[in-house]
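Researcher: Quick one. two chains, 895 residues in total.
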Amino acid sequence: MRLLARVTLLVLLTSACTGDSRTPLVIYSPHGRDLLTLLERRFERLHPDVDVRWLDMGSQEVYDRLRSERANAQADVWFGGPATIFARGAHDSLLEPFRPTWAGAIGPHGRGPGDRYFAAYETPAVIVYAEQAVKPEEAPRDWDDLLDPRWKGKVLIRDPLASGTMRAVWGMIIERGLKHTGDTAAGFQWLRRLDAQTKEYVLNGPLLDQKIVRQEGLVTIWDLPDILLNRRDGLQLGYVFPKSGTPVIEDAIGVVRGARHRAQADAFVEYVGSVEAQLLATREAYRLPARLDLPLDSLPPWAREVRRVMKVADVDWDVLAERGAEWMRYWDENVRGKGEGRERAGP
Amino acid sequence: MNARLGPTAAAALTVLLAWLVLYPILIVVADAAAGGGDAVTRFVTRPGEWGALWASLWISLASVALAAAIGVPLAFLFEWLEFPGRKTLGSLIALPAVLPPFVGVIAFLFLYGESGFVARAVQAVLGLTRPPWRLQGAGAILLVHAYSMYVYFYLLARAGLAKLDASLIEAAQALGAGRWDTLSRVTLPLLRPALGGAGLLVFMAALGSFSAPYVFGGGFRVMTTQIVATKLNGELPLAMVETAALALVAVVGFAVLRRTEGNDPLIALGKGTAPRRRPIRRPGVRGFATAAGWLFAVLLLLPHLTLALVSLVPYGSWTTETLPPVLSLGNYQRLFGEPERLRPLVNSLWMATVSTFAALVLALAAGALIGRRRPREAAGRFRGAIETLVALPWALPGTVFAIALAATFSVSSPITLRWVLVGTVVLLPLAYLVRNLPVTGRAVLAGYRQLDPALEEAAASLGAGWWGVFRRVTLPLLRPALAAGASLAFVAALGDFVTSIVLYTYDNRPISIEIMSSLRVSELGVAAAFGVILMVVSGLVLGVGARR
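Model:
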């Protein structure tokens, strides 16, 4: 008891001693420590009176949080996540209109209705393999290769319900079927076959990377910046751009409705799309800039290489934003763990 | 306590508890109902929902059985027998409680998962080409539950045994009862409040458990993971219906289990002293017991050791080897090198401390008013309501309770007792307080029930005032129960994950959120280092709590 009292006193004293006169700017983002720390430091150097505070969470979680904080918004900026999720956010009145000066340099798919969000980066999905166990020439070349009997029980998949990247890939598959047959059944049939190949649905990206490196599975699907950062840090992961095209997510940014520090929020959004910050993110954190007006030779070699070899899949993002939730629900109930010839796990 | 003040105070406490515990849930139900009956129809017609509900139920019951099977024999062993190393082992055995749920699950993954130490070792020894098992599904969830929840039985049963009156057992033996008869007809009935309380805690904890089903469930869904999946998919009204269904199951389970606790006036008159510990005399048996005890302790400690080991692994250096090839203190240096990273630790400490104190105060108030075997008539009328309110938060999954609080306190309407607390640093400790009420409440109420009113009456007749009796008689008698309840509550708040993820703000983000963020950015080593720190702090607190 006495110990608890002492701890309380100590804690109250220490917490009372920390003061900061700068204006806080709160950012909710799934972009991770590397990019966020980078932008935090640079932005604070430009605006010494601002204290950038970011909270890192999944893109679907950001949406969830903003929705529950609607009455007393805590965040100023929503930074990162597929434009499809931002579209739902805009629909739910979670975003404030703001048009940065660089808005004109963004492609039409990356602009939200009513200037509520704009794409900051383009994030492609790639097929990933364990470099220590799979030779580059043996790796799957395209989505359909993942259904090859060779990979049966060797595919790991990031739990698609919580992940913006995986939702985009699932959406692309279903839309592809929809285009060819006029029905969603073809896409779900494909996903059912993938489910039969899948050994496990993994909780989050890092666990997925770890499991691939430790060869619990040999191939997976994940987003390019994460893989490149991991490669830089020594994880032996290889990646392939699917031949038939890959969905490229418009990773957006917007000002939160009811932001307490509106001026600073605007300034941050303005900064993220500036040429300097776009190139910084590209060079140091493997982000593909969404701005179309950057000269190709200002990009680092890896980004130029990506632009050269990557084929962008044609995805109707509006359809995905509208029907995505319904499709994911159907997948979760009728496809997950029910693929043909699937080895049943469990008790 | 003034006899006239009793009923008023009891009524006030009932209202306060109802506002804290019940009101937010009613708000959620009302909000969900406002969303339309469509969600209810969808819930009722989908077989997946019923499957998840059934899975929640049987997993919880199995968890109670497993936790009791491990915890109760251990409590007897450590309370009744004397052998070398008993004291040290006795505290070590409570250590599963110091593993924060999410980190504990990750530790299990590294240990027993298919590329964990144990699986790899077995694979290497037997020369297998594939991992010997997969840690998935109901079996894996039950393993984690049994491991983390037997502590409730162990600690509460030990507290109960410590209050046991040896003279009752001696009387039974003198009357010719054999060992088995004494156990089944005297000792166990006397322990009923403690065992019933522990069973209730485990059932509710298992029903609301999230981390283990989330990580190991795979296609096997329980209600908590089903709710999160629904919520993540943006179907909030359906998620609320699912929550209501789960709460209903919990309330029914609660009502059934509470009957097993009993209210026999003969229970634990608590005079005299607990039976003296019997030393094991035969050296062979003693050596065996000691060795078995240590072996068991090591088994229980393996997840902690795994965590410590992973915290020493530099980023990305450990792939397919059985043991990590490089070890360094780099992760700890990163952690202590950046003051921003230490901030969550401070936040967690103050929030856990404040919420535990508040929960204790409320529990003591409840105990003083309605905890005695023969409460005053008028105050006694509130007994059922207060007990139910105190236990209710266990029945509700953390995330949803958090959402309920967020929904309730995101509206400014003082007339309906609602203020905007969302986004302030107050809301999260408030949630911890509510979530801690059951653990402090059950412990303190069970403690009060074992109090002999004659002692307090004697003190009062000798001229002690209400405060004097409380401070010098009641409180010291309640100390084991208070310490057990407070330490468990503190540790639960310190490691809380599901509530925090909804209610934290930048200014009070707790350590579990920082661990989650570290995991998200692949810093498994840093996450493990945070886990180790959390574990050590929790261990110290529980060590203090278990000492008598």
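Chain A is about 40% helix and 20% strand.
Researcher: Thanks, that's what I needed.
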